[in-house]
Amino acid sequence: MANNELTFGDEEFIVSKTNLDGKITYGNSLFIQMSGYSELELIDHPHNILRHPDMPAVVFKLLWNQIRSGKEIFAYVKNKTKSGDFYWVFAHVTPSFDSNRKISNYHSVRRKPTTKALEIIKPLYASLLQKEKNSGIPASEEMLAQILKEKGVSYDEFILSF
Ligand SMILES: Cc1cc2nc3c(=O)[nH]c(=O)nc-3n(C[C@H](O)[C@H](O)[C@H](O)COP(=O)(O)O)c2cc1C
Question: Ligand 1 in contact with 77 (CB < 6 A)?
């Protein structure tokens, strides 16, 4: 089974858009190319088509809580391609608003993460995932909150600090 790491250029951006339910409505050519799927296989399908089993659910819970409340979020995400390969991204996910300030859709722009950041994120995600498997998502939420409390920073400050 394929489990190779794919990378992309420092100057490149992986872009996608979703509707309010997280169904993909747009992907730039790099998004389509990295995913290994055809555009037809992606458009109108839920974004979790790329979900990697190494990702802790708490990260996506945080992501959806933030964007549904109208805020942006930065997150490191490991994605799984059609063939079972993977690639890491540093994602900026934002809601878009209509003229009545109602959220109309979501937008994500992803850059290549630094090696230094992944050295911090990989063990953190492994611990959160283990916690989720053993004790559930509320327990991993609590774990993340505790780690941030010990560091004396918010999630936003933490994620932008390396
Ligand atoms: C604009 C946008 C981009 C997203 N990009 C990704 C992504 O690249 N990879 C991913 O696994 N989930 C991404 N998600 C989150 C997925 O919608 C989903 O919550 C996640 O894959 C976890 O799957 P689940 O919610 O079914 O557990 C994105 C969501 C939005 C709104």
Answer: yes
